[in-house]
From TrEMBL:
It holds the Pfam family DUF4401. Keywords: Membrane, Transmembrane, Transmembrane helix. The chain crosses the membrane at residues 46-66, 72-89, 96-117, 123-141, 170-194, 206-223, 235-255, 286-315, 321-339, 346-366. This is DUF4401 domain-containing protein. It comes from the Bacteria. Residues 44-368 form the DUF4401 domain. InterPro entries: DUF4401.
Length: 383
């Protein structure tokens, strides 16, 4: 985001509210430029992650090449790298270059430390628990967004393994349901989390991205169980017990907020609406009914509903990276769902064509409504 885009969004918010915003604009712009200076672009973050994993692979390969196989040596090297990484990841120390080096050190030190603990945690479950505990510790002591993102994803991977190890295939459904609830609460409580604690505020973005990816990983696990092991599928609706109500509630909340903003920029709200909150219009109730009809087929395809949940939450938060991840995952899961349907090619084509037409019609209708809403919104100060 650029400074111009930020100011445009503030102006748009003023128009929707119908009154001037009470903000310290110089302080806001100063913090914005400070974040831009220290965080870098998305491409730089991706390159930092990729280079960190490449460096880890080369370093571990080098240790095996020289014949270093002592668990004590691995534990010592891992501890040193993790400690040095925590120091280098401080944004006020060495800037972006130092943070990139710190990310590489921590990514490399993490598996080395776990390898050093292999004598203590000599089972797969013990190793997963050790990795989970270490990821939680790193998340608490490190503020770097890349590290908090990787720590959250690592926690998700460990929890998925433990859930499947303890509860079998049903554990994956528990995992998806848990992370769907966690992600929804995390995004819906954004304002509360950002102002309640500096520790949470500085880790919010990284954890949010990590929760999205962790949920999508679980959804991918459910999308094609036979890819992982040659076993019959478990009935695939268990995770939908959490996913479908969350999706329906989220859309209902968005419609209420949209209706409330319309009441402020348009005509006077009825007295009953002022007393009980925004009332949905008949058209919005029709939207909810249509959404429920669209969600019913996803009950047996929780990967689709999980991805839709990520997409809506990312859109609500204005988070483009999360939106891109959700769109890519949605394309894959729809293709996976299409491939797995036990129907003829003609029937599949008819279903896809009909679904595409319905979605395009819904897009056109929503676009028309949103455009008319933006046109009727007054300028700053209610002008």
């Amino acid at each position: 985001m650029t400074e111009k885009k930020l100011l445009e969004e503030l102006d748009q918010l003023e128009r929707e509210l119908g009154r001037p915003l009470q903000i310290d604009q110089p302080a806001l712009l100063h913090e914005f430029h400070d974040d831009q200076e220290h965080e870098g672009t998305l491409g730089m973050k991706v390159l930092s992650i990729v280079s960190a994993f490449i460096a880890t692979g080369f370093f571990i390969g080098f240790t095996f090449l020289i014949g270093l196989n002592s668990t004590l040596a691995f534990a010592v090297m891992g501890t040193i790298m993790l400690g040095a990484g925590c120091v280098f990841c401080r944004r006020d120390l060495l800037g972006i270059l130092g943070e990139a080096f710190g990310v590489a050190l921590m990514v490399c030190g993490f598996p080395l430390f776990l390898a050093g603990m292999s004598d203590v945690t000599n089972t797969e479950t013990g190793m997963a628990l050790a990795a989970l505990a270490l990821a939680v510790l790193i998340l608490v002591i490190t503020e770097n967004k890349i590290i908090t993102f990787l720590a959250t994803v690592t926690m998700g991977g460990c929890m998925l393994f433990l859930a499947h190890d303890d509860y079998g295939r049903f554990g994956a459904h528990l995992y998806v349901g848990f992370f769907a609830i966690a992600l929804t609460l995390w995004v819906q409580s954004e304002a509360l989390l950002l102002k309640s604690s500096g520790l949470l505020a500085r880790r919010y973005d990284g954890v949010r991205t990590g929760l999205i990816l962790a949920l999508l990983i679980g959804a991918g696990y459910l999308s094609d169980f036979r890819f992982w092991m040659d076993l019959p599928r478990l009935p695939n609706w268990y995770a939908s017990v959490a996913l479908v109500p969350l999706l329906f509630w989220l859309v209902y909340d968005l419609l209420k907020r949209f209706n409330h903003s319309q009441g402020r920029v348009g005509t006077e709200m009825p007295a009953t609406a002022k007393a009980t909150g925004p009332v949905l219009s008949p058209l919005q109730r029709l939207y909810l009914a249509g959404l429920l009809a669209l969600l019913i087929p996803t009950i047996f395809a929780p990967a689709l509903s999980a991805t839709l949940l990520c997409l809506l939450l990312a859109w609500k938060a204005g988070y483009r990276t999360g939106t891109a991840l959700a769109v890519i995952a949605l394309i894959y899961f729809i293709s996976r769902y299409y491939y797995d349907m036990n129907l003829s090619l003609l029937t599949k084509s008819i279903i896809l064509s009909t679904s595409g037409g319905l979605f395009l019609a819904a897009w056109a209708l929503l676009r028309k409504k949103i455009s008319s809403h933006e046109t009727t919104a007054p300028g700053p100060g209610g002008r």
